[in-house]
Design a protein that fits this description.
148 residues, mainly beta, six-stranded mixed sheet, three-stranded antiparallel sheet, 0% helix
Length: 148
């Protein structure tokens, strides 16, 4: 019989027997994982490898405004994390829109409506995340008319 011990540098929460990493309890960063196997009657074996744990990507949206018809319609800005490329989804007045971009920030110009971010993927690190509570509303008011 023998034993197995998996360990890491500080910041990673790891089960020392199974080697399973608890990502939700670990801190993002790059870590060295060591696996020591010592079986009775056999030479001890040790292997090490580096892993990187990334933060889940997030995005923010801005551009809430109300303007009068005929004036400049402001830009809705979506700020993206990391170094890109990205794909993200948003609802515009309840209709799904999917975007792939290398631009940060991503700009939406001359469009009225309610914009709600729903998800993002940072393609560079391969991580995705659902987004809630990121909304921008652009309202265009009609030009007031004088009565007869």
């Amino acid at each position: 019989m023998g034993n197995r011990c998996v360990s890491s540098t500080a910041g990673v929460v790891i089960n020392p027997v199974t080697g399973i990493i608890d990502l939700s309890a670990s801190t993002p960063g790059t870590y060295t994982i060591t696996n020591d196997i010592n079986i009775t009657g056999c030479a001890a074996v040790q292997a090490t490898d580096d892993i990187t744990i990334y933060d889940l990507p997030t995005a923010t949206i801005s551009g809430d405004t109300t303007v009068c018809l005929g004036t400049h319609i402001p830009t809705v800005t979506i700020d993206l994390p990391g170094n890109g490329d990205w794909t993200f989804s948003y609802l515009l007045d309840g209709f799904q829109n999917n975007v792939s971009t290398t631009s940060d920030p991503y700009l939406i110009t001359n469009a009225e409506g309610v914009y709600q971010l729903t998800s993002i993927t940072d393609i560079g690190i391969g991580c995705s995340n659902n987004i809630a509570g990121q909304i921008a509303t652009v309202i265009i008011l009609p030009i007031p008319q004088l009565g007869p």
